[in-house]
Structures are given as C-alpha cells and as structure tokens.
Hints:
Helices cover about 45% and strands about 5% of the residues. By secondary structure, it is mostly helical. Strands 1-5 form a two-stranded antiparallel sheet.
Amino acid sequence: MTKSIKTYLALAALTLCCSSCLDKFPEDGIPAEEAITTVEEADQAVIGIYSAFKSGALYSGYLTLLPDLQTDLAYAVNGYSNVYGDIWRWEILANNTEVEAVYGALYDVISRCNFLLDYAPTVRANTVDDDKLDLLDSYCGEAYMARAIAYSELIKLFCKSYESDEEAANELGVVLISHYNSDEPIKRSSLKDSYQFVLDDLDRAAEYMKLDDDFDPSTDGVLYNTSYFNEYTAYALRARVALYMKKYDEAVKYASKVIDSDYYLLSSASEAYTSTQSYYSYMWTSDNSTEIIWKVGFTVNSYGSALGTVFFNYDYSTVKPDYVPATWVLNLYDSYDYRYSTFFQTFTTGYSHGLTWPLLYKYWGNTTFTSNQILHTSMPKVFRLSEQYLIRAEAYAELGDYNSAGKDITTLRAARYYNYGGSTTLTASNAMTVIEEERVKELYMEGFRLTDLKRWHKGFTREPQSQSISNGSSLKVEADDPLFVWPIPRHEIEAPGADIEPNESNQ
Length: 507
C-alpha cells in the first residue's frame, strides 16, 4: 500500500481491496461516474463495505495480530520465518508495509462509506416507496457504523491515549474525511474531535438501525451471531470507545444496553452443545455463538486471511509456529478455567530443536474451512458479549463500585469455568489487577493488548523462554514508549497536498 489518502479516496470505491478474497465480489466495484441512483444500488454499495472488512490487513490479519504480537503475549521461536519480526522487535518504521496496509485498508472502508452516504440523499429524493426508504435508512446506518469502526481503529493505533477532554483537544487525532468527492484538508484533527466524529457516527447509526418497538427475536430473527450491523452493534462500539476515552459512566451505560438487552448470551464452557463440545468451544471451531455481536462473515468461496497461520504453519505433516504463547499468559489460567484447553493444545514442533509447547489452538481454523483444505481460517469475532462485561467491570472499578465490577467478573467466569463457585471479591487494591488479567485470559490474541497497555500507562518486560529467539526475548519497554503509537506511513506525510503531522514514533 503505497498510495496517499487522496489516492485511496479516489480509487477505493472504483476498485477492490488488495486482498484476493475480495475478488469474489466484482459487483461491489461501483464506478463513480455512474454513482448510486437506486436503493438496490445502495444495497450493492453496502455489500462492498462489508466485503472490505475481509481484507487481510484488517480483522483476519494485521489489525488483530500485530498489536498483540508487539507486546508481551507471545514469543518468536528459533527457526521462525521472521514474519512480523520488526513488529515483535519494536523496530517499527514509517515505511513498514503492514502498518501501511492497515492504514490504507481502514481508509478504504471510510471511502466506501462516504461514497454511499454522499449519494444517498439523491436516492432518497427519487424514491417514493416507504419500504424502500426504510431500507435506505438502514443502509445509511450500516455505513455510519462501518465508518465509526474504521475511524475508531485508526485512533486506537495511530493516536495517544485519551486522558481528558482538555488534553485531547491538544493531541493529534486522525485525518477526518467525511465526503467522497472532498476538498477537505488532508490534515489531522485533534484527538477530541476525532473521537467526537466517531460518537456522532454511532448516534446516527443507532438511530438509522433502531429496532422496532415490537421487535421479537422469535419472529423477526435473532441478533446474535450475525455478520451484519444493528442498533446493538453501535452500542457495543460506543461502550468500547467510552472506555478508551475514560468516560466510565458512558461505558457502563452502553455496555449495560447490550448486556441487559437479553439478545445475547455468554457461551457456556460447562454446558454440552454436542457430545464432544461445549457451547464455548463450538464458538471457536464453528464461529457460531449466542455471544457474538458482530463477526466478519466468511464462506468457503469468500474469506479473508488466516489468523492461525503464524501459530502453526501446518503443512499436513508438522507444525512450525512462528510464535508461541508466553509462559506468563499460560500460567494465568487456573485448573478449572476451560479457556485454557480451548485456546491452547500442546504439540511437538517440526523444528530441529523439537520444542514441545502449548500452541494457540484458538485459531486452528473453522472446521468447515478445514474440511475444504482451507487451513487456520476463522471468522473474526469483532464484538462479543464477554468484552462488554469486561468493559463494564473496568468502568465500575474506575468509578469505585467494586461490588458491581466483581459481579461482572463472576458472571464471565461462571460461563468459562467448569465450576466457579462463590463470587469474585474486588477491592481498591486488587480490582484492576484482576480485570487486567481477565482481559488477557478472555481476549488473548484478539488485538487488544497494545491499546490496553497504552491507556493503562504500563510497559512490559520479556524474559527469554524455551527456544525463543535472542533478539527480542529480553525486550524491556517502558510505559508510554513512543511506539505504543504507530508511525503515520511516510508516504502519507510526504504526499503532495497533504499537511499531516507525524507521530513521535515517526522520528
């Protein structure tokens, strides 16, 4: 990805993302000169937006893997292929191709959304059928939602943590582009304005996608396990963003909207779904669960990248993982925690050193894909109910309501343990330690760790473990290291007509 934002904006709606999986959707390339003139064409534009999320630069690849590999959760193994090695070693430059790809793919999503939203008023003016107008509103809601997701991820990776409204007004945010054909300056807004843009989009998304007052899942269709947005997807992101902004009352409010809706249910580790699987393990082998709020939908004919490849590199004979779980992570799980046996399984690797280690089985792959010789491919579960419990628990703890925070941790653990008796007692002295560890155990390798450490203002130290490569295994990263904020791609800063200020990590 070597083009500037202006180039992304000019071409994204005309061409497909570089990920080969998107070639399955030739109908989603909409020539600008033909625009969008009907509700049916708006529908095709929405298909293109959802398709863009399949990019290997996003949730099925870099956007999920790199933030966690950059931290203390995994170790590169002797003999590894050096894939993502510069990320793991904290040698991230402004011309890093993976960082460029994430940046470009997120702006591609934004451009597609802007394309639809710019032409929607014309479609609305030419449409008289009320049912079609309702559909158009829904499509616009999905576009606002997708744009909010993309901007929230850009802010998460390329901006500092949000400390207060006053400080954020003087911190660098992201380049905000709200129209497809735009003369808006290619200049970074403040962090405060960037987050406000996301919040405004989420308000619009929730309104446009609002469920009918008489919505009944038994007749109107369930909301869980969907690859499409709805009102509660907007609330889930709103809760996440509120936590990142340290607006703890808001985080409780929106997480509670999702949790208390009763539209979603935590998948139980102790209840059998089949004779060999619990509901919880089935979620990871089949990408199907009552706790999934939104996933990137794959089929065997249309899918993104393979999240599990670097953890196995299985060639139908041996496994040669590039990265293995950190010992300290493995030691967090106690003997009753079913997440351990779901996430990790011990293999003897095919390397000459013969390392035997618990590998990340969580991303071994969807069984339907595996049976079609598509290895290590899982549908990214971008929003899950468990995260909402963790968001609310942390927000409660920050507000000093340790009893409520403990109840949320207890609810989550009860769904994950073979047997979890009693309750979780949290106090001012232990609450954040428990919650931080619970986030690692629940969200391991789902792309949250770098942002968590950044907003908690914590660094980390790696200690060498068996067969970990020497270059990087003894890394010590101080809190607030500049590389907690990724560098803005160099070509963006140098693009003609751009006025983009670099991050400290660009220096």
